[in-house]
Amino acid sequence: MSPLPVKLSRTTTRAIEARRTQAEGALAAQNFSPPDSLAPFPFTAIVGQDDMKLAFVIAAIDPSVGGVLVFGDRGTGKSTAVRALARLLPPMRSVVGCAYNCDPAATAALCDGCKKRAAQGGLKTTLRAAPVVDLPLGATEDRVVGALDLERALTQGEKSFEPGLLAKANRGFLYIDEANLLEDHLVDLLLDVAASGENVVEREGLSVRHPARFVLIGSGNPEEGELRPQLLDRFGLAVDVKTPTDIPVRIEVVRRRDAFERDPARFAKAWSVEEHKLRRRIATGRERLGAVQAPDEALEKAARLCVALGADGLRGELTLLRAARALASFEGVERVGDAQLRRVAPFALGHRLRRNPLDDIGSATRVARAIEEIFSA
Amino acid sequence: MSGDGEAAAWARASHAAALFAVDPLGSGVSLRAPPGPARDAWLALLRDYLPSGAPMRRAPLAISDDRLLGGLDLPATLRAGRPVAETGLLAQADGGVLLLTMAERLGGATAARIAAALDAGEIELARDGLSARQQARIGVVALDEGHDDDERPPTALLDRLAFHLDLAEVSHRAAVKARCTSAAEVAAARARLPSVIAPTKAIEALVAAAARLGIDSLRAPLLALRVARASCALRGADVIDDEDLAVAACLALAPRATCAPPIEESEVPPEEAGDEPGPAKNDADPKNDNAQPREAPAPDDLVVAAARSAIPADVLARLATTARTRAPAARGGKSGAALVSARRGRPLGARRGALREGRLCLIETLRAAAPWQPLRRAHAADDAGLAVRVRADDFRVTRFRERRETTAIFVVDASGSSAMQRLGEVKGAIELLLADCYVRRDSVALVAFRGKSAEILLPPTRSLARAKRLLAALPGGGGTPLALGLDAAGALAESVRRKGQTPLLILLTDGRGNIDRKGAPDRAKALDDALDAARRLRAPGLAALAIDSSPAAAARADAPTRKIAEAMNGRYLKMPFADAATLSQAVRAAAPAP
After folding, report:
1. In B171-212, where does DSSP find H-type helix?
2. Is residue A254, in this structure, part of any structural domain at all?
3. Which of A52, A167, B283, B451 could be stapled to B478 by a disulfide with Cβ–Cβ 3.0 to 4.6 Å?
4. Predicted local confidence at residue B21, as pLDDT
5. Number of compact structural domains in chain A
């Protein structure tokens, strides 16, 4: 749903801006307190589910792959993995006192407040953890996009903008658990913002726009309802998760979960080396990403794969290449090769097959078949 | 149920209450029972076992997000002149138990919110201009008043509840019998719980047993482990042993079984074990183990045997006859077949919107406008003396949930093989079904296949008379292009779905496809193609029914029509019906509720 058109005079907008700048310091303190001390289940301790973990790592290395959808059985650690991801993301430099985590290096993408501060004489910056924001079920639109600050309005009779979850998620991850249960108008809104990278608020007499670039992560269970097809191909990568059927694997899952629940702190400590290693690999993967080459053969194979599968639009091809490049960078390889393309093709393309919207089992096999055809030739 | 059986069921349930009370947070009980003295007795028992002062809050069925999660407390806000948050039930139940009444009718959205609180132990509130994080470490008791297997609490919730109890057959007389555990023992067990050790072989036994009972979810063995731990603490022991595993199997694994474990020689015969409740029956087992270690069964055998004893005999028989089936994937046909509509149906609540998007909800609109009144009055340019200043932003419109219309697509085999023997009978069956469709106000469509092609004889229509006429005039003869028929039906189903209706596919065939997709006569290829076409029809929300008209069907378990029904995840029905009622009932079961 589009926001209601409420026009405001320039002067009012400017007045709001000024007040907002004052309030931002306080806001930042209130909204961006570090994640609670309760240690989440470590990412590296999740048994199996390699596709899901790899998709998250790829999104962490190159956020421009455009989001990850994790769809599948209950109790497979979907939410656990997303929440654990926060600990693996490299910290980011951002402007002190900015409610939108503005990147001081990206001068073009600064929010209005930071532009003004920059003009007035430089930005103070700090390192902070990249945000992983959970969209709670039952969240209302005003808290998602941001709205008039009710407290200030009531107590001081002032209009000021209180940024919402989209502001908080800027430059990080936004996680929607049970994406298929979310109200349609909220889903539309999120997709719109995720695609444009900007949140435009026009409500309650406020007119605010601010940067909101985030990696959208959605999870869901097909038994609760289908995802709309429009929603499906807005995600860059889509991973199917299944409950492991192998008994030793299942035993290991239960054993680790049990150990974690008994003593989270000790469990986290036992896995801290692994976690640290992965964190380092992600950080170096991100640094090296620009240097990874995608040779013509790789481009050609990616194109042929997309044509063979009838994955329409260029989006599939682009995502496939980006994901393959991120994987190459993660693996410390300098050129994108067949191995990377083969590995990421199922989750970059599997959800884009148009021919057969009813047939979801077939899509995995079709991708596998096309991969065989093109890469064995 | 016999008096003994009742006593056993009650003993099991009361033991479960004690175990749940030892370790309630983040877990729960699904209690299937009609409202009545037995259920009240169980709840009173639980109340007694829980620590005094632990909250026990009851959530009504149609609870709003405001009450469940919390929101803006409007009267307090207006009085105080600043936003005052209202704590939701989930946060109010922190440290205690949330009771869900009529849990079998709980909506998926509410269940998901409760499940999230169970998992995280806290709720994150982002509503009505408030952001907060509140502790909500709760246990859940889902009071399930459903009558049959289709009426169950949402799976998302059931999956997270350790105990699945059934008190439906327990009378009050059984319930008043002396309890086995005192509140003091439960409290002592709670204190002991953190020191209980779970040996690796206990974990392995539970996981293996869960797998043998056909339980997919990994939460089941985890919850069973918690139950075993509580049982161990309640016994006053430090290390989980076979007895605790047996208790866990009875209470947490057995009710989730989807297939009967194969009976093995080493197992306790079910009749012997089944008469006594879980906790009591194992008195003998450990002794045997100690005496004859060579003959002792593997731990997971023991666990499976214990679980088997807790599964009622009739259920066990049913599990054994049905092949292992996954949870019905087509549930979406029932719950998904609803449409949010602007004007008609059941009201769903209000949300912000323009007036043309629905009907104005006056109360919600005023509620939205109320907090802003002082501000608006102060900023107002005019002095119109308006009592309430309402702006376009405040408008709240009511949304409605509308039932979707169902379209029954009949896919009729009019080939020679079918026509010669049974076309008349098939036509008779369809006429019966048409009468049903009329009652349910369904639309119908007709697809027929014969020779080398399939055609849509009748696009979706409400005119049942036309359908009947066309059917009567339907000629028979030629090959059986089964795959083409299914493809045509699939395309039609998709277009029906795009129109916002729910398709229901009814296939009538003898399954002897002999024309493949390309129209060439090739029996083997034809069956493969037909199975492939059927698999494509497998989609959540598309209910399907295959009716086998082949005369030999009764004798064969691997009839091709049965395979096709399985491939499209639909029901399978054999043609020589006992009566019209059976047929109509089968279709009603496959179709979404009207």
Report:
1. 172-175, 183-192, 200-212
2. no
3. B451
4. 93
5. 2
CATH of the domain at A162: 3.40.50.300
| Contacts A–B by Cβ distance under 8 A | 178
Q: Which domain holds residue A308?
A: 292-376
Write down all domains in chain B, each with its CATH number in brackets: 1-183 (3.40.50.300), 196-323 (no CATH), 338-403 (no CATH), 406-590 (3.40.50.410)
In sequence order, the 6+-apart residues with CB closer than 8 A to the CB of B215 are B221, B253, B256, B257, B258
What's the DSSP call for residue B328? Answer: P
Lowest-confidence region among A117-121, A217-221, B158-162: A117-121
Res A15 pLDDT > 50: no
Q: Determine if the pTM surpasses 0.80.
A: no
Task: Give B80-107 pLDDT, tens digit per residue.
Answer: 777 788 888 999 999 999 999 888 888 7
Contact list in A for residue B194 (CB cut-off 8 A) is 262
Same domain as A165, residue A101: yes
Quote the minimal CA–CA distance from A346 to chain B in Å: 19
Closest CA to A353 of A191, A231, A233, A240: A233
The answer to the question of residue A60 being in a domain is yes
Structure ipTM: 0.77
The residue-averaged pLDDT of A251-269 equals 90
State whether residue B491 sits within 8 Å of chain A by CB. no
At residue B232 the predicted structure's pLDDT band, cuts being 50, 70 and 90, is very high
Q: Cβ separation of B126 and A75 shorter than 8 Å?
A: no
Query: According to the model, what pLDDT value does residue B98 have?
Result: 93
Say whether A366 is catalytic.
no
User: Judging by DSSP bridges, how do beta strands B453-461 and B443-450 pair with one another?
Assistant: antiparallel
pLDDT at A21 (0 to 100): 38
Residues A60 and A209 placed together within one structural domain of the fold: yes
Handedness of CA B414, B415, B419, B425 (dihedral sign): negative
Residue among B119, B155, B218, B357 with most chain A CBs within 10 A, to mutate: B218
Give the residue-averaged pLDDT of B566-594. 66
| Same-domain pairing of A106 and A165 | yes
Specify whether A179 is located in the same domain as A312: no
The one catalytic residue among A152, A288, A304, A315: A315
Out of A4, A181, A356, the one facing B393 most closely (by C-beta) is A4
B119 and A251 within 8 Å at the Cβ level: the answer is: no
Q: What is the CATH number of the domain that holds A347?
A: 1.10.8.80
Task: Give the HSE-up count for residue B462: Cα atoms under 13 Å, Cβ half-sphere.
Answer: 7
CA distance B375 to chain A (A): 5
Q: Distances in Å between the alpha carbon of A67 and those of A70, A172, A179, A215?
A: 10, 11, 13, 5
- The reply to whether A259 falls in a domain is no
DSSP code string of B477-532: -S---HHHHHHHHHHHHHHHHHTT-EEEEEEEE-----B-TTS-B-HHHHHHHHHH
Contact A137 B82 (CB under 8 A): no
**Tens-place pLDDT, residues A127-173:** 888 899 988 888 888 888 888 777 777 777 777 888 889 999 988 99
pLDDT score, position B224: 93
Residue A365 counted as domain residue? yes
